Amino acid sequence: MLRHFPKTLTAIGFGMICSATALSAEGLVVSNWDGYMAPDAIDAFNTASGNSAELVLHGTNEEIMGKLIASKGKGYDVVFVSSPFAEVLHNLGLAEELDHAKIPNIANLYEQATKLEHDPGNAFSVPYAWGTTGLCYRSDLVADAPDSWMDLLAPADAVRGKTTMLATDRWLLGAGFLAKGYSVNETDADKLGEVRDLLIEAKDTLLAYDDATFYAKLVSGEAELVHAWDGWCNYGIAENADIKYVIPSEGSDLWVDTMVILKNSENKDAAYSFVNFILDAKNHGWAAENILYKVPNEPAMSALSADMFATFPNMGITPDVLIGYEQLRDVGEATRAYARAVSEIKAAD
């Protein structure tokens, strides 16, 4: 998933930036999206543990995966990646098989977070954040509250040209799969073709494909209905209380961002210590309080204020509801067919 946080969040990461080419074999190397953990997390970990960890940033899953595959994971110790990519690292033999005895704070995870489809029992990945994908809209501008993916893909005339969709392959196609009642991991060529055609038709109704600024377009009124990750919709809600989030009746995917220790890490003990440090309720709770994402850490979520749930209702989506949605999975060779379909959608007149 592309991460491009609001300026107020992006700025806090600048003090932790290390060149991606300046990897040290002597100290722990953590790769994460910008602003995705507390600005003092690395320094606090180093002080508490006596380690010399450093942070390198990646903009997308695809970016860090290219580096990890090319290097066979060497030069990195802990990486934050979305669950389909964690699954790929495991399938390629690049992910460490986790020793839970070295991660005592893993006990803070909700039971449901130990039963994720991509990695039951958290054998090779530890969930960091999770959530849904749905519709984010201006309740003061949209006459009828949306409740179906088709409200986005075949919008009412009043909102035509005022809608956006996520551009990333899996989520763009996911909206079409869900609208058709298919799996978000569908690999049947005919069904993929149906979804491609549906999304080509929908393209004529869009303001833009937008992974980064759709919530700002809602705030300004340029857009009225957008395809959104729930946490990002919260950025808009924080600025305008008329912005609402809904999961369509056809459902959502369950997205999960994870922490993976690399099998070729030269700092295994420090890597385990870092993952355990992040899973401390206070440290993990920072993400929920400041990035407005749900975290699968029970004591961290329990510590949030009632005002947080009142202001951002999707923060209260329960673990039982979350795991009822289908996770995005590694679709293997079908990844190429997905990419081709998305290219055809975006190239269509």
From TrEMBL:
Location within or outside the cell: Periplasm
Keyword entries, A-Z: Periplasm, Signal, Transport
GO cellular component terms attached to this protein's record: periplasmic space
Superkingdom, taxonomy of origin: Bacteria
Endpoints of the signal sequence: 1-24
BP terms from Gene Ontology: polyamine transport
MF terms in GO: polyamine binding
SUPFAM superfamilies noted in UniProt: Periplasmic binding protein-like II (SSF53850)
Alphabetical list of InterPro entries matching this protein: SBP, Sperm_putr-bd
PANTHER family hit by this protein: SPERMIDINE/PUTRESCINE-BINDING PERIPLASMIC PROTEIN, SPERMIDINE_PUTRESCINE-BINDING PERIPLASMIC PROTEIN
Protein name: Spermidine/putrescine transport system substrate-binding protein
